[in-house]
């Protein structure tokens, strides 16, 4: 009973996230069901775990589709007490974020798509169907000893890809069955390819194609990751204990690009992986940014690559003792 009472106490701060008392009671009941259900943690299994399998399920499903509540508010209790878990008043808030894929089998689930299986071997890429998310977790290191950090999820932002519009002449079923239509469509594809190469004037884009191109940019993983970082920064700025703390975000190499680096919020530092032969440049001085003729300069003098810095004897190597790969190691930096 002590664990049940503690879990009930942890759910009490969620009450302010729901507009009505009955909505809060339904969400609390489903939280118990997801904790106690067996096999896959689905809404149907959570309903059955609470003993409501013979009642109407529509109200429970409307909680996730029609009820006006913000999922980000469910993680507010973590930010409220996060300053108490940090070792010092000047300690930064460390966040790790990456995209993840939740496997799904239904073909009518909104946002579900086929993506690369991260567990597939490198010599044979497999495809799985699922929902794509960008997850961010705050990291808290061990205080008594040098050990692994505890990660607490604080954001799970959906990132479904944009749906490509179908061509109006190919939506009919007979367009794929009759050989005559297949030859006609093949000739049209050849004309479009020739138009792209500059042989003739390109066809104007339809409003559906323009909207698809816009949604493709907005739904990219880098853009969703930037929105996640901005949401975390806003959550930290809303609390006096974490308002002035630096946010250290660690991400994969796919996020180490100008889309993320140019849209970082204030008091935020991004740490990402980069290629060892990356071509880098020094910052351009303000006095040389403009010149009399030609285009304005954008890059400064060429900088050494990360591999050249690694092998440069003039740069001192500092060994840091840290916990990595299930053991305490000395990592040269």
Walk me through what this model shows:
The chain has 333 residues and is of the alpha+beta class. It has four domains: 2-69; 75-163 and 217-273, no CATH class; 173-205; 298-333, no CATH class. Helices cover 32% and strands 19% of the residues. The protein contains eleven helices and ten strands. The chain has helices spanning 2-11, 21-36, 43-49, 58-65, 76-80, 82-85, 179-196, 207-218, 221-237, 258-261, 306-310, and strands at residues 93-103, 113-116, 127-140, 150-158, 247-251, 268-272, 280-281, 302-303, 319-324, 327-332. Strands 1, 2, 3, 4, 5 and 6 form a six-stranded mixed beta sheet that branches. A two-stranded antiparallel sheet has the order 7-8. It has a two-stranded antiparallel sheet with strand order 9-10. Strand 9 and strand 10 form a beta hairpin. Helix 2 crosses helix 3. The protein is globular and about 75 Å long. The model has no long low-confidence stretch (mean pLDDT 85).
Mean pLDDT: 85
User: Can you tell me the residue ranges where pLDDT is under 50 for at least 5 consecutive residues?
Assistant: none
As a percent range, the share of helical residues equals: 25-40%
Largest sheet: 6 strands, mixed
Q: How many DSSP-defined strands?
A: 10
Strand content: 15-25%
Shape: globular
Distance between the termini: 49 Å
User: Which structural class best describes the helix and strand composition?
Assistant: alpha+beta
Number of helical elements: 11
Question: Total domains, how many?
Answer: 4
Radius of gyration: 26 Å
Order of helices and strands: HHHHHHEEEEHHHEHEEEHEE
């Amino acid at each position: 009973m002590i664990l049940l009472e503690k879990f009930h106490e942890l759910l009490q701060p969620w009450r302010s996230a729901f507009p009505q008392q009955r909505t809060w009671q339904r969400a609390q009941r489903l939280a118990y069901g997801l904790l106690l259900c067996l096999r896959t943690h689905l809404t149907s299994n959570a309903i059955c775990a609470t003993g409501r399998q013979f009642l109407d399920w529509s109200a429970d499903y409307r909680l996730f589709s029609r009820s006006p509540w913000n999922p980000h508010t469910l993680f507010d209790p973590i930010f409220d007490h996060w300053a108490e878990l940090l070792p010092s008043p000047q300690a930064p808030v460390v966040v790790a974020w990456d995209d993840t894929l939740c496997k799904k089998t239904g073909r009518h689930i909104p946002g579900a798509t086929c993506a690369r299986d991260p567990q597939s071997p490198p010599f044979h890429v497999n495809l799985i169907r699922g929902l794509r998310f960008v997850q961010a977790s705050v990291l808290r290191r061990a205080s008594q000893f040098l050990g692994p950090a505890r990660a607490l999820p604080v954001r799970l932002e959906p990132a479904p890809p944009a749906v490509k519009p179908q061509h109006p002449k190919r939506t009919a079923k007979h367009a794929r069955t009759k050989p005559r239509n297949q030859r006609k469509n093949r000739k049209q594809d050849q004309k479009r390819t020739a138009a792209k190469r500059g042989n003739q004037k390109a066809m104007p884009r339809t409003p559906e194609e323009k909207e698809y191109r816009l949604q493709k940019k907005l739904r990219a993983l880098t853009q969703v990751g930037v929105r996640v970082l901005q949401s975390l920064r806003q959550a930290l700025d809303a609390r006096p204990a974490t308002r002035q703390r630096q946010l250290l975000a660690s991400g994969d190499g796919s996020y180490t690009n100008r889309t993320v680096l140019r849209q970082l919020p204030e008091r935020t530092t991004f740490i990402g992986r980069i290629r060892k032969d990356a071509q880098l440049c020094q910052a351009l001085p303000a006095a040389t940014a403009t010149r009399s003729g030609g285009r304005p300069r954008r890059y400064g003098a060429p900088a050494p690559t990360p591999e050249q810095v690694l092998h440069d004897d003039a740069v001192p190597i500092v060994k840091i003792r840290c916990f990595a790969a299930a053991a305490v190691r000395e990592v040269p930096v």
